[in-house]
Amino acid sequence: MKAWMREQAQALVRSSAWKATSTWIRGRARGLPAGHELHGVSVPAEVIVYFGDNAEKTYQLTQWLPVLERLNEEHRVLLVFRKLGALREVKGTTRLPMVFVRRFEDLATLYFENNYMLAIYVNNGVTNFQSLSYAPMVHVHVNHGESDKISMVSNQAKAYDKTLIAGQAALERHRAALLDFDESKLIAVGRPQLDIARERELVPSTRRTLMYAPTWEGENDENNYTSIDRFGVDIVRAMLAVPNARVIYKPHPRVEESADETIADADARIRELITAAGEPHAVKMQGDILAMFADVDLLVTDISSVGLDFLYLQPDRPLILTDRRTDPAKLHADAPISRSTAVIDENSREQIGDLIRTQLESDEHTDARAQMRTFYFGDGEVGTSTTAFLSTITRLITERQQKLAVFTRQASNMEASD
Q1: In this predicted structure, what is the pLDDT of residue 406?
Q2: What is the pTM of this model?
């Protein structure tokens, strides 16, 4: 079997799929004991977590790190990076071992010289397909959140052996968007990242905490769900006018570096308003938003993972969504959660203050949100998602080991018959 794998590695290296012009930085794998040299190529693990993007997207990976550290207790985990800047960004945030592999052929050699059984992907980066060329591993896509954004479903899902999803909503999302898709690839495990205990990031306050947490503008107009440029300033002004309240502005991490002038201008105006209002109001451009939710009494956000995470963690607290397109029918179809929340759009922007106060005083959507929580995440309580995730990974590894054993026996029988 080992000899066959080496032959396959050499074939891949010779093929156009594994050619590259850049250079691999050789040396000791970050986080591994001395003696584990990449050019050796002995970097043991059962599970690799592949990340091929640059540093600005590492938030997609870091939210998984606590779960992966828990997985490491049962199956040895290795983080594989293709960009040095991304590795440097993550280094120091986890005890998991990590390696940097620039060239395609070195990645192939690394895989074929080690017994990796399963690969996890947290996004749909273009270099994922270089990793997918390695057949013996189980390739599992987990994404980096649960959201109704159109970007959450990609035709690339057909390339992975399995895709772990949160629940029924994600299944229906894939069913509606993809043609000729094998739904047996989908496995519902909930949202393990939300099971992690977090230290609170907001200073305790006797005031009601109102959070505005808009998403960024996306890669194109179709994937643009942000409210910053449309309603952001109005939302913050209305929040600041609510008696006995503190306002927390926590946008998506990529808002801070947006190249869109309208987004940048609105973001700057919002920060100025909050700064001028003084304490206890606060701007939180970075930080763990999930660790802030424990102290949030009402959240205003856009269509993104933020609203669904809040729904999971704080289902009894008011949630308000935005609709930059002011198309209720489409919003309800594309984002079912909007059927159980108040919505800010062009038709309601003049009543934002009244809408917020009404939700604080008489939240009429509590029962509907509870049903939506089950629709998106299943019936499990906090903690059950991690259990489902771990058992699923173990099962997939076991099944792949059994299939490889059968394959090896068949290959041996064929060689004997020759």
Answers
A1: 86
A2: 0.82
